[in-house]
Amino acid sequence: MRCLTFLTGLAVASMLLLSQATVAQISGYQGKRTLATYNLQYFPALLNPNANNNTGLAAFNVNHVLKGEYILTRKSSIGAQARFYRTTVEFGEDAIIYNAQVSGPAGTQFWPSSAYTIGTTDGFNSVEVTERGELSGYSIGSFYRFYGSKALAPLGNYFQVGLELMSYKVNPVGNALQNPSQVQLGGVGNATFRPEPGETVNFPEVQEDKRWSALAFTMDFGRQRVIFDRVVWNYGIQNGYIIAGSGVSGFQDLFVADNTFLIREYDESEYLATKGRRRLSGVLFLNIYMGFGLLAF
Amino acid sequence: MPQKRYIRRANSHSMRTFLLLTLWLLNSVLLAQDFDNYQPLQSTGEIPKAFRTLSGDKYQKDRGQIDQNQSRVLRKTKEDFYLKSNFLVDEILLSGKVLFNDPVTTYVNKVADEILKDDPELREDLQIYVVKSPIVNAFTTNNGIVLVNLGLLAQLENEAQLAFVLSHEFVHYKNNHVINSYVENTKIERGQGGYQRTTFDDKLLAKSKYSKELEFEADREGLDAYLETSYDLEAVNGVFDVLQYSYLPYDDVEFKKDFLSTPYFDFPEDYYLEEITPISGEEDYDDSKSTHPNTRKRRKAVNRELNETSNEEREVFLVSEIEFLSVQQLARFEMVRLYLLDRDYANSLYTAYLLLQNNPNNSYLRKAVVKSLYGMAKYKNAGLLSDVLAKHTRIEGESQQLNFLMQQLSGQEMTLLAMIHAWNLYLEFPEDAYLKAASEDLMNELVFEYDVQPKDFSKKPKMAEEKKESAIDSLASKDPSELTKYEKIKLKKQKTNLEEEKNFMHYSLAGLFQNKKFANAFDETVEDFKEKNDRENVSTQVAAQEFLDAYNEERLNRRKGLALGIKNIVIVDPVYKKVDQRKRDAVKYLKSEEGQQAYVSTIERNADLAKLDVSLLDTKAFRADDVELFNDFAALNDWVGERFDHEDLDFVVSDHNRMMELTEKYGTDYFAWTGVVAMRERKAYAALYVCLGAMTIYGLPFALAYAAVPEYDTFFYFMLFDVPNGEAVMVERIYIDGKDRLDMMNSFVYDAFFQVKHKRK
What is chain B's Cα-based Rg? Predict the structure, then answer.
């Protein structure tokens, strides 16, 4: 984590140094070389629900990105950016780990973060679960833009590569009562979680404020224009990948089956980090965007 | 009384002489041309309104005069005509090639006044200008502008011939031949109005036939008008002679062998043709696809009427013989320059040769000879002589000798010949910037290209041939065994000298070597050459470093642009063209004119932002009193035309001295040409995409959208020249996928100015 922070800091510092070195060496747009833009990145929530838990062509996952760009050469620029995002994580079959309440033997209430060794006589009836959580966070990063042969920075078509340090957290949405889902235990219903007698089950505490980090690599193809000599607008398409992250031991294949995350194998923190990171991958994988901004100076 | 009468007569005679003398002096003052220091023709006075009115406005005015009762198709055809003709004619008027209020134009107008003195209404409608073109031609536009080429004026023999040419042109205007021809050609193209849809050849024949009918009509009615004047009738046939032999120089005089040789060398005999090709001047050529009937037919048609008219009391000159001769001389002097601009060096040299017969010491003509030789030497050394010199077999008449001689000379010989003439004149006119630059360039060319050194030439003139040969003969005739040691040495040396003389250029520099300036310059050039060679040969490390430095510089320039550190430039006539390549008439004239004005604003605004001092020579913005700017623009346009023709050749252009004047006037060596071409094109494979889209159903909307949105491309260029050196210091050529949007224009123009102004820290 520290390493990632250091790398990001280094990238920003390099950018500032480079900016100093290139002051007034290139034309920019009518002498202006610094741009600040806001980009709205979005993609239809086809595979995952959006922040409002809606899916379909009319529902969108949205990122808000603030960018500062500095023109380095006639064909390139460097920039720093901050991204803000919010979406929904579906827990699906392994939702049990978000359990807030477990009905145990008569009169027994289990609270998160408790462990319970199931005895042979324990009569579990049901578990109330939370099916989804809210993934939210921000990222800081830097990017480098290559403007096309027929462009002149900051105008025209560009290809951009970026590196982002993403910070995120996953919170269960609502509570069990609001979104109840009954998982029948003890041979009743279609429980996916069926602890065996004598097995110790952890019901970890939901850690609402815990944050994890991930390093992402992004690529953009876009086009930028200027109107009224001051206002910048752009549009493009972005593809991104998570390349490393904290909170998970070892490299996690993004496409492994859900049952990998069964509570037997992870604790809650690790699960949330992994689940969140997988969702982040989806968030970054494909976005289209449009934005506007100002040519500052 | 008789005495009185005599006195009176004497008075009358002296009065007449005095008047003639005064007129001649007045003419001389008016024409104000000192032929020895000949200056290219320039326009004077107020710029005519026709040059200052926007083409779009002219079009709207013409369009408003179309008869609305005519058929829609005819109205549309006429609208098209007015649009194209107004813009195309204005392009000619603002090309810098058209002269106004100069002595030649003034004289031609006087002749027009004489012809139309009984038809003031028609005279009022006509505007006559002279075009700086060597082509023997005159033409008329629909709006009454008659353009007479200098090439024609250089060939005409008298005023009456000019009067007939003008009478012919006036009929074209009077009878609306230009627009009628356009309407008829459109019908032929479309297969309307009695024309069937036929092959390309048939259409061509039909157009040619119609055009020839109009020419016959112009000849016929022109002759009628001509007959109303008091001009000589024999001149009419003279005009057809001029046309028949228009491909020849204005005179056919033997090209003497000693013209280019000097006291120090002579060309070998086999460098000259023994016989030249006689002039054919075909009169009855096949004119089936020509716009004009052949001269035989035209001659025959007018002669019928001429033979019935008396030539009594008719004169060859009605306005002024002196003025005509002066104008003819001006046109011929101008031809030398125009040929140089066109890189037609043989014609330029031969025309200068012809004029030098009567003006043997004329410095302008002698410089033109140097310029012609310089041009041919440069092209010969670049292996491109055939670009500028026609093969002698294609030439008829005495000038063929010159083409043959030039073809015979090797590159080294031609360079040497040009250098000798350039240096001789340069030493005579040491202040002449062109001669200085050309002399130095030729010397460099000789040394760097052919590795020639002073020791390769004799510094003493060639000995008398007889003396040497007799000395050799006397020794050679002796029995070798009887020769003394010293006689043997002498014989060997003399034989070697004789061998060297076979290289006829060996003694060619003997005269110039007597001049210290030349000798020192030669030594210095050789030194430079050696230094360059040493630098390249001594160390590969140095060479590698130089290569690396150049590479790094280029890389830096690519990334950050140039940093020329220039404070002020002149931009010459910014161009803006809007083209729709999907249409038959691709150029969108009206939008182009609007765009040009917007582009000028873009230039002005970005020059301010970049803090670059930009002087604009915008032809569309000239005011009536901007004639000086107009002339500057014309000179610059000539310069850039010639410069572009030379392409990558490092060349001292023929109007170098005029350019030096302009650099001083504008306080900068840097002149730029810039423009934008905005194109709308047919989308490639649109039909294919629609078919594929239809096959996939889901892809159809995308394919339709693709096909419906037009393809736009924009080309922007900005070329900055260091005019004294003829070097392009900055060439920006950018193709943009997209429309000519304002932000793009701003960006490219500002960037170009930034690179010009900026200086690397």
Answer: 32
CA distance B607 to chain A (A): 10
Q: What is the mean pLDDT of residues B690-699?
A: 83
HEC letters along A144-185: EEEECCCCECCEEEEEEEEEEEEEEEEEECCCCCCCCCEEEC
The Cα B213–Cα B171 span in angstroms is: 13
Whether B510 and B457 have beta carbons less than 8 Å apart is answered as yes
* Contact call for B743 and A225, based on CB within 8 A: yes
Contacts of A27 in chain B (CB under 8 A): 561, 610, 747, 750-751, 754-755, 758
What's the gap in Å between the CA of B736 and the closest CA on chain A?
5
**All domains of chain A in start order, with CATH:** 2-90+133-173+207-295 (2.40.160.20)
Give B233-256 pLDDT, tens digit per residue. 999 999 999 999 999 999 999 999
Number of Cβ within 10 Å of residue B608's Cβ equals 12
Of B736, B744, B754, the CB nearest to A27: B754
The sign one gets for the Cα dihedral A44, A46, A51, A52 is positive
Q: Which two tokens stand for residue B82?
A: 């007015």
A-chain CB neighbours of B556 within 8 Å are none
Q: pLDDT tens digits for A135-190?
A: 899 999 999 999 998 888 899 999 999 999 999 888 766 443 222 333 333 333 33
Beta-carbon separation of B755 and A25 below 8 A: no
Asked if pLDDT for residue A101 goes beyond 70, the answer is: no
Residue of B nearest to A154 (CA): B747
Helix (H) or strand (E) holding B722: strand B711-722
CB < 8 Å to B734, chain A: 150, 152
Interchain contact B716–A (C-beta under 8 A): no
* CA distance linking residue B604 with residue B587, whole number of Å: 25
Burial B354-381 (b: 16+ CB within 10 A, else e): bbbeebeebbbbbbbbbbbbbbbbbbbb
Q: Do B751 and A73 touch (CB under 8 A)?
A: no
**Which of B112-126, B503-517, B585-599 is predicted least confidently?**
B503-517
Tokens, residue B401: 């000798």
Task: Report the gap between the CA of B754 and the closest CA in chain A (Å).
Answer: 6
Residues belonging to chain A with any Cβ–Cβ distance to chain B shorter than 8 Å: 22, 24-27, 29-31, 73-76, 150-152, 155-157, 225-227, 229
Q: Give the β-pairing of A34-45 and A126-128.
A: unpaired
Check A26 against B561: CB less than 8 A apart: yes
Smallest CA–CA distance, residue A227 to chain B, in Å, is 6
**Cross-chain residue pair A27–B755, CB shorter than 8 Å:** yes
Mean pLDDT of A5-27: 62
3-state class percentages of chain B: helix first, strand second, coil last, to nearest 5: 60, 10, 30
Q: Does pLDDT of B479 surpass 80?
A: no
For the purposes of burial, counting CB atoms within 10 Å of the CB of B159, is it exposed (0-12), middle (13-18) or buried (19 or more)? buried
Note whether A27 contacts B751, CB cutoff 8 Å.
Answer: yes
Strand partners, A40: A64, A290
Is A101 in contact with A176 (CB distance < 8 Å)? yes
pLDDT tens for each residue of B634-692: 999 999 999 999 998 999 999 999 999 999 999 999 999 999 999 998 887 888 888 88
Distance from CA of B564 to the nearest CA of A (A): 12
Does any CB of chain A come closer than 8 Å to the CB of residue B760? Answer: yes
SS3 category, B679: strand
Output b/e per residue, A220-232; b: 16+ Cβ within 10 A. bebbbbbeeeeeb
pTM to 2 decimal places = 0.81
- Which pLDDT value is given to residue A182? 34
